[in-house]
Amino acid sequence: MLPVLPPYADETTVSWGARVARFHTGMTCADFLKMVEIKQAHIMDLNVKTVERLSKFTGVPETQILGGGPQKAGERLLAYKGETFNARFMTRTYTTYCPACLIDDAAAEANGDRVGRLSWMFSTVRVCPRHGILLTRRKNLGYYERFQDMNLVAPEDDFLRKQGAEAERRRVSPLQAYVEDRFSGASGPAWLDNQGIDQASKACEMLGICRLMGADVDLRTPTLAEWDEAGAIGYAAASQGPVGIYSILDEITAPVKARNCWGGPQLVLGRIFKWLQYNKSHTDPGPILDCVREYIVDTMPVDPETVLFGHAIEHRKRHSVPTLAEYSGIHVKTINRAVAVTGLLANVDLEVIDVWRTFDATAGEALADRINRSLPIKSAPEYLNCNRTQAQMLVKCGILKQVAPGLGLHGGVLTQVPLDEIDSFLEAFRSSGRPVTSASKGMMNVIDASEIARETAADIVRMVLDGRLSKVELLNESLRFRSVLVDPDEVYAVANASEDHHGCSVAETARRLGVSTVGVTHLRTKLDETGRPFLQVTEVINARGSVRLRFAVEEIQRFLDIHVSLKDLAKREGVSTKAMSKRLSDRGIEPIMDRVLLRSKVFRRADL
After folding, report:
1. pTM reported for the whole predicted model
2. To the nearest whole percent, how much of the chain has pLDDT over 90?
């Protein structure tokens, strides 16, 4: 058939066939195909033998004809330009066109033919890039309209002009641009490129429409413009991969979660969940399925063995307050308080049980087990084999940690002490020492030693745990707390050592300065010429709450660098203290305080 009439770029095979038929025979495409005995379905599906015949009598190469549409690639699968996709990705049950393009075609073509564009038939294409208007898309009037000859399925020119004038102005969405670019061989975001083009598009649209119109949107109600906007929203998220998808799923679920009414993943994810869980179309949704499943498992309390999108969940990753309460048998309000005070959840309203907020399941179950395997403080003495005062002191000073530390001794279940904590303490308490069958001379249990050494049992326990006592003996472990023996003399010596990591005692400081212990009190309470105490002190509080005063070695040396005693001055000058005192008095040099206060005369070196 001459002259050869090739198809335009992006022209459908049906549109090209209609132009060829009118140009060479004056017939409609349908009548022409009957004449040459070609079925309409074969030209729509680009049947191999049909393409061969069309190529022979039109003179157009087969490859060029094949560019006018997709070919069958399996059960409900089509292939086009290297992409394989589900047949639903094409809108063959709809008539789609740009009214402005069809008016332009009629003016440009010799026979006034209209050109059907293949791109219009893809579900994600909703905007004409040439005219910047929303396409017109309507349901086919019948099966016969699947044969999309625009000369027959589109309205008259006057109505087309009206549609074009009234069409909504829009820019091509990022999703539409992605699909068009991908058919052209261009690469896009990796997460989208690593799946079918139809899967990527569907994922974007479902995420976007649920974000735009709510999780329970009726998919029959959105307009073409709303689907176009949804595609843009979903593409912005999915192009970032799982991170972006998790973020938009958070936004989708937030409104329902705010109502604080439990209903499982289906309640908050709505259409997305139903699409993936029930899959009525029996099509593979692609990577979005695993991504949403992982999101659910990572953010919601999903029971083990729950079948989620065809896959049984093996392990629980998250608990909510209600699910942990059910798992442990502990009252839900106790669990709510426990996760708040232990930091498993931040900003917890103790009066409201939030059914959607979740925390790590392993940490939550460990907390519940600690609560279930714990003793009230009043029961700890019997387990430890000590008196109630000693047990309370061990708890108060943090040697025995409560389920929720910091609540004091009267905070209910959470103030109890886990058995594992007590057992670990006893193991550490007995970890050093010499096993004996009976106490050596002078050795006694911590409770008795505390009375003699005048130190609290808790402070002696710390000495044992810190390895500060060289004499430690161990009786049979059945005695538990009383099985550890210490020497009260060594305890007293260690507690009152002249210098420890806190500094020197009052007595030792007085000795080093050459003043009385009362004098040390005056030095720490009275101010020098700069307005600061003569001696800076550190207060050390023992387990009983008693305050001990300690003076840093550096602080004592600072005082000695600035001051000197009368005794040291006389010794340096080789005179008696009486003669040295008269000499200083004659020069008008006065001590820093009255001798009666310090039991010694002390002078500023700067005044000498």
Report:
1. 0.76
2. 72
